[in-house]
Every structure is written in C-alpha cells, then in structure tokens.
C-alpha cells in the first residue's frame, strides 16, 4: 500500500515538473500582459536542444542549460513580434509553435542523419538520493533533482511577485501599463525580459522531459504539456502557488494514466490517455468561474495611448 | 520620404502578405545556405516539385483541399473574434464519423455521398459547438478547450477505429468506405480499359486523372469559400457575427445576443472542418482511418492558412494552395538536394511571423520622422 502511494506521488511529481516550469514561464509572461501560447514550441525546442547537446557533450548540465538558452532565443521572436511590432499575441505565439517544433525536427535530421529523433543520451539528470540502486519506499521517491528545482522556482516566484518591488512593478505592467508608465516603470522593457524568462523556463521544462523522464527527443515527446500548463495557469488563477498546484493535479492525472495503463488493464489505454484532457476541461468548468486575467492581457502598450 | 512610401504600400494587406511570403522564402534560403544546401538550387527544386508535371499540379490541388477547408473554418471563426485552434479535433471527428457511416451503409451514390458528407459535417459542427458552449456558458477560453478537445478527439478516433465491426482484420485501421461513398471524379471508370485508353489520348488532363486521386473536394472548397464570404458580407447573420468580432460591447448594446453568436460561429466553423474531413476521406486513398500516434496536422495547418489569408475566405484558397504547394514540393527538396522536408514548417512559420509583424511596420516607420520633429520644436 505504502509502496503504491509513494509510487503515485513520485510519478505525479515527475510528470508535473515539465508543466511546472512551462506554467511558471507562461505565468510570468501573462502577469506582464503578454499572452504566451508559444510555451509548447519553446518546450519542444528545449527538449530537443537538451537531448542533442547532452548527447554530443556527454554533460547533462550543459544540455539542461542550453535547453533554457534555446527556449529563450525562441522567446525573443515572440517578444519582438508582440511587443515591438505590437502584433496579435496569440498569432505570434502560434508562430512559435510552428517554428519551435519545425526547427527542432529540421536540426535533428541535420545532426542525426535524417532522423527526426535524437539518439538516447548516455547519462540522465541525477536523482535526489543519488543514482544508486535504492529499493523500497525511498527508491520509489527517488525523483529527478529537477522536481526540487521546479519547487524552488515556484517558491521564488511567490517571493518575487508578492514581496519585492520588482514583482509589484511587473504586476502593475500587466494590470495597468499606462499607470505603471507614469510611475516611471519601463513597460516594454519589463515585458521583454519576462517573455524571455518565460522562454528560458519553458526550455528547462522541455529538457526535464528528455533528460529526466525519457532519455531522447522524438517528435511526440512534447505532446500538449505546454498547452496543459497554460490551462494550469488559468486554473490556478494567475498565481504561482495556484499554477503549481494545478500542475500537480494534471501530473496526477497523467500518473494515473501511466499506472492504470500498465499490464492487464480493464480500461482501454486509448480511453485512459484521454483522462488528463477531460479532467482539465471538467476542472475548468467546475472551478474556474470568473478567474480574472491580468487586465492588460493581450494588449500591446504604446506610450501615450489611452486605455 | 521613402520610409513613408513603404509605409503607405504596407498598409495594403495584399502587399503585406506578398512581402511576407517573399521574406519568408528569403529567410528559408538563408537557413538552407547556413545548413550547407545551395539555396537557389533548393528553391528551383521546390518550384519543379510543384509545377513540372500535370501529376504534381494535380496533387498540389488535392493536398491543398483539406487545409483550405480547415483554413476556411479558422478564418470564419477569426472574422468573428474566435481563435478556433480546435479545428484539428473537428477534422478528426469529421473523418471518424464519415468513415463509420461510409463503412456501415452501402446505398446508391446519390443518397450515400450526401449522407457520408453530412455525417462528417454534423460531427464537426457538434464538436466545434462544444467549444462554443464552453466559452459562452462557462467562460472557458476557446484556445484551451480547443486543445483539450483535440487530444480527446485523437484518442477517441484511435479507440473507435480498432473496435470490432470497423477494424479490418489485425490491421491498425478500419475497412475502406464503400465504393458508393467515394467522391472521386471518374473514379471507377478510369480503371477500366476503355477509360484508361481514352484518358491516355488527352495530353495534360489525362495524366492528371490517371496518376492522381482527382476528386470533387477542391471545387467544393471554392464553393464553400464563396458561400462563407457571402454569408459574412451580405447577410444579417454575417453582420451580427462580424459585429461581435469587432466590438462585442457595442454589439451587445445594439441588441445582438453575443453568447448565441459565439455558439453559432463555432457550429459553422466546426461544420466546415467536418465537411472538409468527409471530403478528404471519400476523395483520397486509402479512404479509411488508422490509429494515429500524433496529429496529422490537417487542422493545425489550417491556422497558418487562415492567418496568411488575413482571414479572407477567398484568400484561404490562395494561401491553402501556397501551403499545399510548399508541402508537396518540399518532398522534391529532399530528393533533389537532400535537404530535410522539415524546413517547410519553418518556412510557413516565418511567413506567418512576417504577416503578423508587417501590420506593425507602417506604424514603426511613420514614427521615425515624428521623433525627429520633437527636437525641432
């Protein structure tokens, strides 16, 4: 019994971690008023870059870092389009979702002789209790170190948003950019930084999949986790702790899918696979009610314009 | 002053789109060059892969048809302010429903074809309508619900297509739809000796008919585009829908029921995608569905088609052809210069990127003289 419970907890934590990273990334962008549906594409490029760099250098940390950088670079495109050129943020996010996977598969087939999947990496991210062969409950709970990183990032975000001046500025930019501007906050600069940070985090999120959960990148590695993390942000009412909790919930749904799907299951695996998505919809219907997005969400800001 | 001129030109959406396409191909050339492929030869190979034989041109039309339909679906919703990313799911359930009806029934073509098409249309409409209801009644953003429903549709389709009465033997797919359901032009006749000999005598069309699945889909897409354009521009309903899209508050103030309109838009949008799906199944080999490991992208590709077209229904035909041409011609890139076909997705992404930012370009260009003006004062 204890064994199953700890196993569920561990798998929940593992599967929620990529979404926590992407969700927090999406959150910091949305908080400043820039909608970012591009996290899916940023995760994909991160997942690919992490696996590819780790395969060639043999160092998992360099891979992880490069994944963040790749996500950040892709985010610059989104920032330039949506902030500098004031184009529609949903469209610009869609562009990221086209270019991210496109670039990942293109570069993959350049590097791996026409294959759209990378070779498996030699060493994966370390576990919290070390990589030794630990048995029993402790072994079950021996999750990737990224689980801890994700938690720390969430706590850091809570501190950042609610305890620091910078965090308040950031929220002011998302709620009332004109007022923030009057206070001397550089609206577009803050937005630019936050969009890039969101790309870096989404890139990390992608790498936690390819360097932690599985050990290679395939075209279906990132299959909607980015989008689910956006749902998690909405479900978590645009707060770091809410988003973190929602990601855990969706991770739990995936953990159940994994656990129930193994072996002789009564429920067909195809129906089980639907479960996280149906749960997301039901949760949104039941609990979201009137979740309030940052007021300036989706609106580009031009100095001197009236709201 | 030339800045001003460029700005004036770029205010016209047609020129913006053309500039975006040219820039997109240009950047693709740079990427290919960086990756070590000759850019000019690659572009020529691409062009050859699209235009150099009647078979190719015919295949581009056939390939473009489903994405024109999904593009129309997205464009229609977009005109009215909704981002129908759920079009992929609507396309999948459309394929599913039309296949099931096409397998189960075997009536004379005059009744069978409309029934099969109707099945796809109704399934797509119902699935799209769900997104509308979720948005209108529960305030759930259509992007989120659309994406969730896409995945649900994928697994639902995978589940049903290997169920007992539909699954063919031990394969991972269904039976073909009945012969009477097919929407091919000269479908059975061109495989007879008479048909083959007759078509061989016709220079260009003959080859196209013999070597490709010529079907009614493209014509249907053109008719659908015109119908949607008329609906949007010439009818009261279309006016209501556009009013909600432009400014929902003023629409509500003049007594338009916003919630009802949101649901209506999604019903129509889904129906268009579902019809496209039914025509895809009935008009293209293998005329059946199989278990999918990932999205085919027929719906998702409709998004860039609609965006490049600036959401104009008639424009969707052109941008759909562009997209279909790039996808089909992209294969020639692979066998002529060895460049991975994945470059095509990047090209499309870059074109949409330029389409998106071009709107902001005139504003940025015109701003420059204003800044100088400040110092003169």
UniProtKB/TrEMBL annotation, chain A:
It is found in: Cell membrane. It holds the Pfam family BPD_transp_2. One of its GO terms (molecular function) is transmembrane transporter activity. Keywords: Cell membrane, Membrane, Transmembrane, Transmembrane helix. Its main location: membrane. The keyword Transmembrane helix applies. Signal peptide: none annotated. GO terms for cellular component: plasma membrane. It is a multi-pass membrane protein. Coiled coil: none annotated. The chain crosses the membrane at residues 6-27, 34-56, 62-84, 91-112, 145-162, 192-214, 220-236, 243-262, 274-293. This is ABC transporter permease.
